[in-house]
Amino acid sequence: MTQHESTTTVLRKNKKVLIASLTGSAIEWFDYFLYGTAAALVFNKIFFPMVDPVIGLILSYLSFSLTFFIRPIGGVIFAHIGDRIGRKKTLVLTLSLMGGATVMIGLLPTYEMIGMWAPALLILMRIIQGMGIGGEWGGALLLAYEYAPEKRKGFFGSIPQAGVTIGMLMATFIVSLMTLFSEEDFLSWGWRIPFLLSSVLVLIGLWIRKDIDETPDFKKVKKSGQVAKAPLRETLKHHWREVLIAAGLKVVETAPFYIFSTFVVSYATTTLTFQKSQALEAVTLGALVATIMIPLMGLLSDKIGRQRMYAVSVFILGLFIVPWFMLLNTGTTWGIVTATVIAFGVLWAPVTAVLGTLCSEIFSANVRYTGITLGYQLGAALAGGTAPLIATGLLAKYDGDWVPVAWYLAVTVVISLIAIFCASRVKRGPAILAQPNEL
Known about the structure:
This protein has about 450 residues and is mainly α. Helices cover about 80% and strands about 0% of the residues. The longest helix has about 35 residues, at about 55-85. It comes from Enterobacter soli. One of its GO terms (molecular function) is transmembrane transporter activity.
């Protein structure tokens, strides 16, 4: 296969697979950031107005945080289905649930219209969203990974990872457009538009997935009669080490993400003297750079090896922690932009680009959906949403000193370096039906 065939031709042959994988991931993160914004600006006023404004805001945020508890449940359920009946059917189900619930939120009547049924229905839709989202990531990743040519698994596996930053950029763009409405129009009907527009993405995703066949790896599993009868039990019994490794690999991908994209906004505007617009613009620019870098780094990993890329990227990310804070503390626009673009756009991108492929390669094909989902959800729960909370708590305890936060980030780096060291020693057994991928 020539170089031209290995890029242009391969992309053309697998265009639908890659678009289907990316669409689901982008919808997931678009929903995540959009709901968080709406929870802060709208839901406390139109779904929880029956209580004190502060309590209403807290209840609104609690409805947002529900997915952190629901996603692991949805992940286990749909991973079981994915390892039992196949990736394609599961992905159609998860996208339908996730997208349908998102659109329904945009159609919900307010508290003024139906009273307590309004917040009850909002919470129900959020639960359904969480269930679908929990199973979407693993399926979207495996759709790309298990269709990938042997020498392009890093690139294909990076495509759904780019959905994180694409979803963030889409949500940022839509929210910025919503600010053009008057407050009255925004609260009355303007906030509904982004939720209803997500139906377009869902329909595109379902249309594309309709014409995609089951993944080659799962076909081999079925043909050989090795479909796991109880994927969760088999994973926990025979692959618990791999689950812990996958969770460890996730730690340094998820904690710095929330620090570089979320915590930085509050740190820059409260502890430092930046305007909120400066911080948000820096994060948006970082997300744009990361969106371009992720597939490029996935492509590069196919040439230099994923484990090597991950280890080197994590090490450099660790070295940049102190310079990141020093640049922020210059109090200048160029300082916060440079810090965010380098940390978020350049150094975080290769870590997330290879994460999904690394996790996929350490599990047997017959329990791969369950294995990567358990590892991902465990790592996200331990180091994801808690990262800004921990960092903010450390700042408060040490009177705004950033050094303890830097040590916290350094710990995540060490955990993931240990995980990649362990991953290099994982010996895949005979249950893996695909040809081993050279790292």
